[in-house]
Amino acid sequence: MDMVKLGKKGQVSIPKSVLKRVGISGEVPLLVETTEDGAIVLRQAAVYPVEIYSDARIEEFLEEDRLTPDEARRIKAAIKKKKAA
Predict the structure, then answer these.
(1) What pLDDT does residue 85 have?
(2) How far is CA 73 from CA 21, 44, 65, 68, 82, in A?
């Protein structure tokens, strides 16, 4: 177990040995949680890129989702068959 000291500004330095054990290196975002018994838990946050879709990109998605006339006919027939059963 490692001991750390809370600084005047509420900051804590995590020992390199601890970071190495959990596989954290460099500057990474951490989530801070507390438990009912007063423990403070740090977890590495997952950060994912966000894509802002242009109108052209949205149209690409819609085009990929469009049914062919044959697909639409087969789906309607399957729904009709299911309702009749």
Answers:
(1) 78
(2) 58, 49, 15, 9, 14
Retrieve residue 60's tokens. 């690409």
Kindly state whether residue 60 falls inside one of the protein's structural domains.
yes
pLDDT category of residue 84 using cuts at 50, 70 and 90: confident
In a domain, 39, yes or no: no
What distance in Å separates the CA atoms of residue 85 and residue 80, rounded to the nearest whole number? Answer: 9
Cα(14)–Cα(77) distance, rounded to whole angstroms?
63
Q: Supply the mean pLDDT for the chain.
A: 92
